[in-house]
Specification:
The protein is built from 12 helices and 6 strands. By secondary structure, the protein is mostly helical. β1 and β2 form a beta hairpin.
Length: about 270
């Protein structure tokens, strides 16, 4: 079941310039892959069946999304920045209530003003994050939680042990990140997954949590604060049974759920 389809099915066009491409071989490959899928009535995990690949959000559906994704086994990491300090700051600027585009623009603002450095003044960080920022569509917006995030980043950049981040071990690195003010399990796992392509952590953000409930590897009405490690283990087991990389499956689910957010919410409302 480790067959990889070497075509990105997310490309919706079959043309390069004016030359039409014959997609017959693509669908032949797809049929060959689907021929190796278990029976939809077979259990992937206790109480969770594979389901039909043609039905949204079943384990079989996610396995197929994984196989047709643009991620490759040669991809080393999911890094967003060129060094670990930048990576941490970028992820700290994202999170709940902050669109990914806004977090990236805020990071680029700090980077342009050379504010991601040790002994940076708090007022400089606050002024930069409080200023108007321009989205790609040209609209001017303000970054939410400017003072709170400025305080978190200031405290992080002025830590005496900032040059001692244990980047050689994923679980040790996550534990160190958890000691940073403003970083919890989700952000610490996000940074660790990105930087080390860790297969031992999971980024339990709202999109993955919703997918887990709809698919069935998470139960509804969980308590994320007290059950993070239990839910993480459930997701890692789900990936192990699917024979997929958790680091990539996490990213694939996130992108799909984000793109189809309204559909996911409608389905979720019908089962909870």
């Amino acid at each position: 079941m480790n067959t990889q389809l070497n075509v990105n099915f997310h490309e919706e066009t079959a043309f390069f310039g004016c030359i039409e491409i014959d997609e017959t071989y693509i669908w032949n490959q797809a049929r060959q892959i689907l021929g190796h899928f278990p029976d939809e009535r077979e259990e992937l995990m206790p109480g969770l069946k594979w389901g039909s690949v043609y039905r949204l959000y079943t384990p079989a559906f996610w396995k197929f999304q994984y196989l047709i994704s643009s991620f490759s086994d040669s991809r080393e990491t999911h890094r967003l920045a060129g060094n670990i300090r930048d990576e941490i700051v970028m992820c700290m600027l994202g999170g709940y209530g902050i669109p990914s585009e806004m977090g990236i623009i805020a990071f680029e603002t700090l980077k342009l003003q050379k504010l991601i450095r040790s002994f940076v003044p708090f007022d400089d960080l606050l002024n930069a994050l409080s200023s108007q920022m321009k989205l790609q569509n040209g609209r001017l917006v303000k970054y939410r939680f400017a003072r709170q995030k400025a305080n978190y980043i200031y405290t992080f950049l002025n830590r005496s042990d900032i040059d001692q981040i244990p980047t050689e071990n994923d679980l040790e690195m996550r534990a160190w990140l958890m000691s940073v003010n403003g970083i919890g399990f989700k952000t610490a796992s996000w940074i660790t997954r990105n930087w080390l392509r860790s297969e031992k952590v999971a980024i339990l953000d709202i999109h993955l949590l919703r997918a887990g409930v709809i698919t069935g590897f998470f139960r509804p009405n969980f308590n994320l604060n007290s059950e993070y490690l239990y839910l993480e283990e459930r997701f890692l087991t789900f990936c192990q049974q699917l024979e997929v990389r958790p680091s990539d499956m996490d990213a694939i689910i996130w992108h799909y759920m984000k793109k189809n957010n309204k559909l996911a919410l409608n389905i979720l409302s019908s089962i909870t």
